[in-house]
Amino acid sequence: MASLAALAGFVVGALAVMVVRQNVGQRRTMTPVDDVEPGALPHGVASVLAVLPSSAVVLDKEDRVLRASSAARAFGLVRGDHLMAAELLALARQVRRDGEIRESEIEVAGHKFGQESTNFAVRVAPLGSYGQVLVLAEDQTEHRRVEAVRRDFVANVSHELKTPVGALSLLAETIQDAADDPEAVTRFAGRMQHEAARLTYLVQDLITLSRIQGAEPIPTPGPVPIDEAVHEAIDRCNTTAAAKDITLVAGGAEGLQVWGDDELLVTALRNLIDNAVAYSPEHTRVVVSARAAGAHIESVEISVSDQGIGIPESAQERIFERFFRVDAARSRATGGTGLGLAIVKHVAAAHNGAVTVWSKEGSGSTFTLRLPAFGGMAVAVPSTTIPQEAAQ
After folding, report:
1. Could you give a GO molecular-function term held by this entry (predicted)?
2. What is the DSSP string of 30-55?
3. Which of 18, 93, 109, 292 could make an S-S bridge to 378, C-beta 3.0–4.6 Å?
4. Nearest alpha-carbon partner for 125 in 113, 136, 114, 134
């Protein structure tokens, strides 16, 4: 989408230049050149510049700014009647000398909060017969960021897929060599099942993430009972928790509802619970609780708390990034894909909510999903332990 937006900007800019030059040509055939004053804009130029989405600047023959769009001033390209970017000035002077349209890319020191620099695709064209020059600059910063994210994502996916695929290939060769040893075949076949399951989880997470990260609306939203979503997520995690003798506890308020997609919310909760189980020692417990927030139940908060190893403060800002792992070796040992928390973040965003984390090393972590409420009243109930035997 960013590429299409950039292309559309250039098309609009090119059309603007054509319209302006056509207007100038028409005036030359209809009226004397002297009718246009050296310091004035040609007829119709101001109207065209007013509708351009990109940054637009018109310079006179002495490099003074005759007209600048609000975007050009907001980005700091223009101050007063001066064009501040030296590269743009150099391009404008070259265009004024030979009358040739030029295109280029420049980087300007950032003028947005938290942004070090801004990348522009620029187009410079002659305008009129008095040395005037039109400068169009399209902000490409977001486009560049998206491209960088895409490259990183492809590289990360390739790396993550390479590990289980390589393991499956090696195990298949090992089984072939050990065809006369039934015990070895059984052992390696079990390892192949583990790697195949890991590959399946990764593909499923990639499909889920691609489904929700496009900022598309939820296809069939409806009221989602939080009680049912919590119990369904716990049921899906019971087997993993039972293997480590970790008790899953549900508590908080009953009767709460949110508006959204029940399967997506169950997926987000399952990822949080799986994460809590994976990073908790044996014989501990994970608590999932819901509560109403706001005087009139404006939102619902669902928290997943564990007694695990905790997350270093330096890593807490990055844990919702795709494929980011605090401890890569431990995550791969537990079969994690590195996408679980990224999916949780996007599910929360798709429901106009948010996810936050509190954590202290050695004291565990609490992840909280905050979602807009939909009707219902909260009734406080005691915590209940979900029987693990039901999943075995």
Report:
1. phosphoprotein phosphatase activity
2. HS-GGGS-TTSPPTTHHHHHHT-SSE
3. 292
4. 134
Report which residue type is found at 5: A
User: In angstroms, what CA-CA distances link 185 with 166, 177, 180, 333?
Assistant: 18, 9, 8, 22
**End-to-end Cα distance, the chain:** 47
Spatial distance between the Cα atoms of 348 and 204, rounded to a whole number of angstroms: 18
Q: Please state, in angstroms and rounded to a whole number, the distance separating the CA atoms of residues 207 and 97.
A: 55
CA quadruple 337, 341, 346, 348: dihedral positive or negative?
A: positive
Q: What is the pLDDT of residues 227-244, one digit of tens each?
A: 999 999 999 888 889 989
The angle formed by the CA atoms of residues 148, 152 and 155, to the nearest 5 degrees, is 140
Query: Distance between alpha carbon 109 and the CA centroid of its chain, in Å?
Result: 24
Average pLDDT score over residue span 62-68: 86
Q: Is the pLDDT of residue 207 over 70?
A: yes
Helix H or strand E segment including 351: none
Secondary structure element (H or E) that encloses residue 305, with its range = strand 299-305
Burial of 66 (0-12, 13-18, 19+ CB in 10 A): middle
Domains and CATH numbers, the chain: 49-141 (3.30.450.20), 218-377 (3.30.565.10)
**Structure tokens belonging to residue 310:** 């905790």
Q: Is the pTM of this model over 0.70?
A: no
pLDDT tens digit sequence for 363-392? 899 999 999 988 644 444 444 454 443 333
CA–CA separation, 74 and 58 (whole Å)? 16
Q: Where are the alpha helices (DSSP H) in the chain?
A: 2-30, 45-50, 70-74, 86-98, 141-177, 182-212, 226-243, 262-278, 328-333, 340-350
